[in-house]
Amino acid sequence: MDNDTAFNEGQRGRDHEFLVEALCWLPEVTRFALSLERDEADADDLVQETFLKAYEAWHTYMPGTECRGWLFTICRNTFYKRRQREERHVSCDDPELEALAAVAVHASAQQGGYADLFTRFDLSDAIDASIAALPEAFHEVVILIDVNGQSYESAAALLGVPIGTVRSRLFRARRLLQIALINHARDAGLVRPQPNTGVFGQGSQ
Amino acid sequence: MKKFIPRWLARLFSMKGGMPSASMPMPMSAPMLDCESVMRQLWDYLDAELTPERMEEIRMHIEVCKRCYPQYQFERSFLDAVAARGRTHSDPERLRANLLAALRSNGLSEA
């Protein structure tokens, strides 16, 4: 076997590995890109650039490690580079306190007649709008964990922050989303709140 | 194409006894963990991020606690609604074909 033949066979082997291990995540990467980019054509470009970069860097991928997370990292970094956006750092409360704050939201929802809000009404558009309106740091943890099913650990590795930061951002983001959706339901007249309840002002966020 | 199932939902379905049902009778008091501890860990529980032992403790508490069960239902229905919002591509086959063409033009030897 001459050197050219050996090189070509090695190349074909690497390409086959790439197709089997990386391309199988195309639906997930597409879903992730669609959650980052509003426009589908922009998401297409982002997906293509992600996989082209992954292909070029395939020799750096460690077999057996989580390929989806690796692709998400490339996708996210590419997104920020394309948009030339800076990652925004936000301060969050302790995750334990954020978790307990959810109790207050639920109590207010119960008092206002919104306890079954998420099962009684189709809030699809309002959820999309509320997620899109979240500050970037909160938006991306919701997209990674709640929409794309990543673990806290995977999200932390992808974002380059401690797991505690991911938890506090996530719990805060969920609280902001719930408040926004309850306010949406009230404004849309989906449920008539009880007097003096069910209203979340700016100060409650 | 892989079917997307939220981790917390898959984990809860696989747990012994399954998820508590709305028709389940709720005793006045709950054993073991106190309600505040459960509330502090409710998101972690719903995200299946706790140890199997703690997951089981919280599941048992929620099943029998009339204070925590409504909160659990509220948060679970919220997460269900959000998880369902992942956008889908209008033409995934076209996207895949275009991607493979781009990869080939960048040297991919088979597709």
Can you characterise this structure?
- The complex is a heterodimer of chains A (205) and B (111).
- Chain A has 205 residues and is mainly α.
- Chain A is 69% helix and 0% strand.
- Chain A has helices at 3-21, 26-36, 40-56, 67-83, 95-112, 117-120, 124-133, 136-147, 152-159, 163-187.
- Chain A starts with a helix and ends in an 18-residue tail after the last helix.
- Chain B is mostly helical.
- Chain B is 56% helix and 0% strand.
- Chain B is built from 6 helices and no strands.
- Chain B has helices spanning 7-14, 35-40, 42-46, 52-64, 68-83, 92-105.
- Chain B is elongated.
- At the A-B interface, helix 1, helix 2, helix 3, helix 5 and helix 6 of A face helix 2, helix 3, helix 5 and helix 6 of B.
CA-based shape of chain A: elongated
Main structural class of chain B:
mainly alpha
Gyration radius from CA atoms of chain A, angstroms: 21 Å
Measured distance between first and last alpha carbons of chain A: 69 Å
Biggest pleated-sheet summary of chain B = none
Rounded mean pLDDT of chain B is 78
The low-pLDDT segments of chain A are: 201-205
Enumerate how many helices of chain A there are, as a single number.
10
What percent of residues of chain B are in strands? under 5%
Helix content of chain A: 55-70%
Number of helices of chain B: 6
Order of helices and strands of chain B: HHHHHH
Biggest beta sheet attributes of chain A: none
Q: Biggest interface, which chains?
A: A-B, 57 and 46 residues
